[in-house]
Amino acid sequence: MFDYAVIENFVPSNMSNTIKDKLLASNHWEYMDCTININKDSIDPADSNIRNTHQFMQLAYGENGPCSYVYSELAKPVLWMLEAKTGLNITSVQRIKANLLTPNGSTVEHYNPPHIDHTSDQYLSMVYYVNDSDGDTRIFDHTFNDGCYDMKMICSNTPKQGNAIIFPSTRFHCSSNPIDTSARVVLNMVFTVTSESLLQMHQVMEISTE
User: Fold this and answer.
1) Beta partners for 56?
2) What is the CATH number of domain 5-37+48-204?
3) Sign of the alpha-carbon torsion through 32, 34, 39, 41
4) Mind listing the pLDDT tens digit of every residue in the chain (210 residues)?
5) Domain residue spans in the chain?
């Protein structure tokens, strides 16, 4: 299994602009008082860079399937473009949501609580960047089986409109709040693919296996 892969410019500019304009103009954002619900055993108390924060969210695909226009009009076409770019064959969707972070007084060293999206090796996660911003996505060297203590960062990826970062859902990762831009907007997706197409992605893309 790979660690992560950065996918550049796989969404046409007209399409990425439409996604950005619709989400930034949306009034359907739900206020959340934290980026992820965690308990004290889910984070490393020795990591002084962790800061949980509020965020705004729109659920697109949940336990009962599609639940808003965000899936049908915005997220689903992104998944089609992902398949065309990488050769991945998506077999099921577990969750898709749009997240919006704003400045909260954090510095560049701070990030939100590292977490996993799923405990099964069958799932992949993708963060699609809706707009250019700061507030990097951080990827760590631990997976679910390793636990959350003494982790080292292996990637800090800056949001660029039309780009994405993809990684196994068992890998610890996190967002960080923007400092110099007013909003960091992403589509967060969790899904499964066929094992054959995952091997194909390994062959056609430059991926990281630290």
Assistant:
1) 31, 100
2) 2.60.120.620
3) positive
4) 789 999 999 999 999 999 999 999 999 999 999 998 776 567 888 899 999 899 999 999 999 999 999 999 999 999 999 999 999 999 999 999 999 999 999 999 999 999 999 999 999 999 999 999 999 999 999 999 999 999 999 999 999 999 999 999 999 999 999 999 999 999 999 999 999 988 877 766 656 555
5) 5-37+48-204
